[in-house]
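New to this. Help decode the following:
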Amino acid sequence: MAEEEEGVLEERLKAALWFSIGKIVDEETLKLGVNATPQFIGALTEMVWAQIENVSQDLESFSKHAGRSTISVDDVMLLCRRNEGLEAILRNCLERNTAAKGKPGKKR
């Protein structure tokens, strides 16, 4: 039964991803004045899903290697070390969040 529930959950997640990607593609095609086929959206969704699976496996491996059962910010930063642009964006975000936590009166 657990495998069946897991399969249902995966299908629901893929459907939500397909819907979100479809919305983004629709917005961008309207801006650009081009068309995108449902096959394109489906292929893009499968590609993004595969990337999500790879990233999640890498993050899990990094945390296990460090002897932790929880993925941390350090794992995410290690994952993006070869993408300088993404790493810079995440570092800025991390610095802003750290600074915001240190200011009195700010609540999460």
Notes: Helices lie at 2-32, 38-65, 73-79, 84-102. The chain has a mean pLDDT of 93.
